[in-house]
Design a protein that fits this description.
Elements: H1 4-12, H2 17-30, H3 33-122, H4 167-179, E1 183-192, E2 198-208, E3 214-215, H5 217-224, H6 230-250, E4 256-260, H7 263-267, H8 271-280, E5 289-294, H9 295-299, H10 303-314, E6 318-324, H11 331-336, E7 339-345, H12 346-350, H13 364-370, E8 374-378, H14 383-391, E9 396-398, E10 406-407, H15 410-413
Helix pairs in contact: 1-2, 2-3, 3-6, 3-8
């Protein structure tokens, strides 16, 4: 009878073939050598078969596991493909939407520019009759050469200086400047006090003659307004301001731009609706572009002008009132009409003029602040004025002391991206 140890060894023979050989050797030495050898051989064969069966089981389990992993991987890839297809559809919709919006902006701008060109052409008098030339009598001796003395040749007319032009000549010069696109945008900084950090810019227009002489607003407005040319000047300035605003946005700047608009533009029934349509496609400009009107324009606004302002306010654009000469205005009413800035000259502030209700000019800043309006003191030219207006708790100022209006460089108005974020907007 084999011992328990030998029984365990016999059982292991079915698992490990080498143990079968060892057990056969044991039987060979303990009992009958032939029987031991035969038993060891049988045990080795059984162990080999068990080992093969075990290997096949392990292989089947490994194959099943690999199949499960492949199935899981395929399911993951399918989900990724579905997500990618959804993203592609979303990008296509976004691209189509942005393309349509861009095309709408371009078409609306083209319509505005066409209107400006048509208006400009309409201001020129093409119906003036040509001067009549009298036929001279034939000479008695046509073969004889005419003698021309120096006294017969009229001397060339001296070119007039800009200040010597009469109104008709100045108007023609202004019209020619507009036709040849000689309208320059100048920017003047608006700074915080006392830090003097640039917070805003004010856009100012200057016309240039063929000789490069500047025509200042005080000169061209006098003759351009009666001729109906101010909407053209205003809106060329506006498009220049929009180009600057887009450059500021590219540079991640928070600075805004004040753009002046005259009452003539608000009353223009042909142009202004097209202008509002253009703004509808460019509402992103509202956070940087501030429309500025004189106090005279605001006070004299009728139904048409108010409707024009309401149309712009409905698109989110803010307004500023400048050229303030009378501090007796209704701040609450201005706020309701979306005015968020009021510019008062340093001289007006420091003269101590009173507002309605006997509120001193020193309290004007707080009065406006309570109504959601920011006070800006402009035309600051001396350091002493800075000290005085700081006593009135003024936080924003503008004037030659902080920077003169400078022309915007032509490269800024082009569509190319800025090379560096610190490139100045205005030419030195």
């Amino acid at each position: 009878m084999p011992s328990p140890i030998k029984q365990i060894a016999a059982t292991l023979l079915y698992i490990v073939p080498s143990i079968g050989l060892a057990y056969g050797a044991i039987l060979f030495f303990d009992f009958d050598p032939k029987l031991g050898a035969l038993t060891g051989l049988i045990a080795a064969m059984l162990g080999a078969e068990a080992h093969a069966a075990l290997s096949r089981t392990v292989e089947r389990k490994a194959t099943r596991k690999e199949l499960q992993e492949l199935t899981s991987l395929a399911a993951g890839l399918s989900r990724d493909l579905d997500d990618a297809a959804d993203k592609i559809d979303e990008l296509e919709e976004r691209f189509e939407r942005e393309t349509n919006e861009r095309m709408e902006r371009i078409f609306s701008e083209i319509r505005v520019v066409e209107s400006l060109v048509t208006r400009l052409a309409g201001t020129r008098d093409f119906t003036a009759p040509a001067p009549e030339i009298e036929a001279s009598a034939p000479a008695e001796d046509s073969d004889a050469p005419e003698e021309i003395s120096d006294s017969d040749v009229p001397p060339p007319k001296p070119e007039k200086r800009l200040e010597d032009l009469d109104d008709a000549e100045l108007l023609d010069t202004i019209r020619h400047s507009l036709e040849t696109n000689r309208v320059d945008l100048y920017l003047q900084p608006v700074v915080s006090l006392p830090q003097r950090k640039i917070m805003y810019y004010e856009g100012l227009s200057r016309l240039r003659t063929d000789k490069g002489e500047l025509i200042m607003p005080r000169d061209y407005m006098r003759v351009a307004e009666p001729a109906g040319m101010m909407p053209t000047v205003d809106n060329i300035l506006l498009f220049r301001c929009i180009q600057v605003v887009r450059k500021l946005a590219q540079r991640k700047s928070k600075a805004g731009v004040f753009c002046n608009i005259s009452a003539f533009s608000l009353l223009d029934e042909e142009f202004f609706p097209q202008f509002v349509e253009y703004m509808q496609h460019n509402t992103d400009l509202a956070q940087h572009l501030i429309f500025e009107f004189s106090q005279a324009t605001v006070n004299g606004a009728g139904h048409v002008e108010r409707a024009s302002l309401e149309a712009l306010a409905a698109l989110g654009f803010r307004f500023s009132m400048d050229q303030v000469t009378d501090l007796r205005f209704d701040a609450g009413s201005l706020h309701d009409r979306n005015f968020r800035f009021v510019k008062v000259s340093a001289a007006t502030m420091l003269e101590g003029t009173h507002t309605a209700g006997d509120i001193h000019a020193a309290d004007l800043k707080e009065l406006l602040k309570r109504n959601g309006i920011q006070l800006i003191v402009d035309k600051v030219e001396h350091e002493r004025e800075v000290v005085d207006v700081l006593d009135y708790d003024v936080e924003i100022a503008q004037g030659f002391l902080f920077g003169e209006p400078r022309p915007v460089r032509e490269s800024v108005l082009k569509d190319e991206p800025a090379k560096a974020p610190d490139i100045p907007l205005a030419a030195d």
